Amino acid sequence: MPAHHRHAPSPRRTAAIALVGLLCAAGAACSQPTPEPGGAPPPAITKVRYSEPSSADVIPMLFPATGVESRRTQGLTGLLALAQDVRTKACTTPTGGAPADDPPAMFVRRMALPDLAYVRAHGFTSPPVPTLAASPRCADATEERITSLGKMIAPLQARWWKVVESVNDEPTVQRAYTKLKGCFAGHGLAADDEDAFFGVVDSRLSARGSDPRAAEREDRRLGALYARCMAPVEAVREGLRQQRRKAFLKSHSAEVGRLQNTLPERLDQVEDSFDVHYSAPTP
Q: How many CA atoms lie within 13 A of 11 on its CB side?
């Protein structure tokens, strides 16, 4: 991961927003939840959108340029994590026994591409992926369909995340970041930059760890504040990402074309094999 300037997001803040991407899609680790600020339990998801991804969805799904588009990316990661979770339980649970009490598959987000509308409504916790799954026999739950799909999409998608991260180096983005301190202070919160803000989030939610409802209220309050102050930063970054995506798609046109032609069918196969359904979070 490239080094960040003073006002850019720090890799240390993985406790605030999950940073898991499609690189983990081929492994079981993706079905584990990422720690949330202060250890607060994730709330039940309020709304998702179920759909059947088409070739038109591949671009925003794999190469999102906005927080809203990243919901499709979360849906893809969540589908593969859910399929892996279903397979693991089918192949490890003794006949007639209770399934292992493992954490559920989670929607995961990248701090470098925040969905401010969702954060404003729900705070920073990532919700579990809703499951409508049956319980397939282990022989029917072919893991190869998960791992091969992850390997197919990971290399090019990883290159795109590097492009997303590189936007933070632009002078216009850095200037926008310098205004965060004043915005936070204007709302009664002492934080010099984004990293310090998430330190406050961790501290306040940890202090409310014994009262989940109080932690959830504070999480949402801080999420609304963050969305308000980060909006000018994201306005600059979204324009830059969209410009760079055009160049990225052009320079990788052959690989992108293959993914558009094959990914929807491969996702259908995963859904059919594991009796899971693609869904994406919405505010």
A: 5
CA 240, CA 234: separation in Å to the nearest integer? Answer: 10
Closest among 62, 31, 45, 1 to 259, alpha carbons compared: 62
User: pLDDT for 95-128, tens place per residue?
Assistant: 545 555 677 888 888 888 999 999 999 999 888 8
The two three-digit tokens of residue 234, written as one number: 């994201």
Instruction: State the DSSP string of the chain.
Output: -----TTSPPGGGGGTS----GGGTTSGGGGSPPPPGGGPPPPPP--EEE----GGGHHHHHS--SHHHHHHHHHHHHHHHHHHHHHHHHHHSPTTSPPP-PPPPB----TTS--HHHHHHH-SPPPBPP-------GGG--THHHHHHHHHHHHHHHHHHHHHHHGGGSHHHHHHHTTHHHHHHHTT---SSHHHHHHHHHHHHHHTTT-HHHHHHHHHHHHHHHHHHHHHHHHHHHHHHHHHHHHHHHHTHHHHHHHHHHHHHHHHHHHHHHT---EEE--
**Sign of the C-alpha dihedral computed for residues 109, 113, 118 and 122 taken in this order:** positive
Cβ distance 193 to 177 under 8 Å? yes
Per-residue pLDDT tens over the stretch 190-236: 999 999 999 999 999 999 989 999 999 999 999 999 999 999 999 99
- What CA–CA distance (Å, rounded) separates 111 from 198? 11
Q: Residue 178 is encoded by which pair of tokens?
A: 């310098």
- Cβ burial 79-94 (10 Å sphere, 16+ → b, else e): bbbbbbbbbbbbeeee
d(CA 129, CA 39): 19
